[in-house]
Design a protein that fits this description.
single chain, alpha/beta, 202 residues, disordered N terminus, globular, Rossmann fold
Length: 202
């Protein structure tokens, strides 16, 4: 077969992939990154930093990356662009971040709402769902004034509704689910490492 034919076939394959859908995530055969998902206030950032240190991975927080790129806080983006505008930015950011190797990524609580994001997370790394009770989440977020969805509302009611809506999505993509509750970050990290080893992910 001539070089031209081989090249043509390659181009055809690339075009076919694009036609199939821009939101299609390319699956990595050997995931080298870990993605944390779970409700707001569960401790993805705190636990993520400690777990990244333990596993010698680079820690990345999706919300922090979005703020750095936009030059504005998440709450401001929600106010100006609405939740839909923020979710659009989140999809773009996750498309980039999940394509990186050797990172431990903490996602925002609502990242799983978009199918594109669920595909990126599920196909490009090992997904860990950090879970907790609504009561625990209320305690953890009580003094946090930077969460747009919890401003001027009943936090317990909102967190309960969000948990009901998102839990099935977290479970859909999770390789590992771990109940956090009131455990220390150190204890959670120990349990995560144990589960990763047991599942052959390390």
């Amino acid at each position: 077969m001539s070089a031209f034919c081989v090249g043509s076939l390659f181009v055809q394959e690339v075009l076919a992939l694009k036609i199939a859908g821009a939101d299609m995530a390319v699956e990595k055969t050997s995931p080298s990154s870990i993605f944390l998902v779970g409700p707001m206030g569960v401790g993805k950032t705190t636990i993520g930093r400690a777990l990244a240190d333990e596993l010698r991975l680079e820690f990345v927080d999706c919300d922090v990356e979005i703020e750095a790129r936009c030059g504005a806080e998440i709450a401001w983006i929600f106010d100006v662009e609405g939740e839909a505008g923020f979710r659009d930015r989140e999809v773009e950011m996750l498309a980039e971040l999940t394509d990186r190797d050797n990172i431990l990524l903490a996602t925002g609580g609502g990242a799983v709402l978009r199918k594109e994001n669920r595909d990126y997370l599920r196909k490009r790394g090992t997904v860990i769902f950090l879970d907790s009770s609504v009561e625990s989440l209320v305690k953890r977020t009580a003094k946090d004034k930077k969460r747009p969805l919890l401003q001027n509302v009943d936090p317990a009611e909102v967190l309960r509704r969000i948990k009901t809506e998102r839990d099935p999505l977290y479970r859909e993509i999770a390789d590992i689910r771990l109940y956090v509750g009131d455990k220390s970050s150190r204890r959670v990290v120990q349990q995560v490492v144990h589960l990763l080893n047991r599942k052959g992910k390390l």
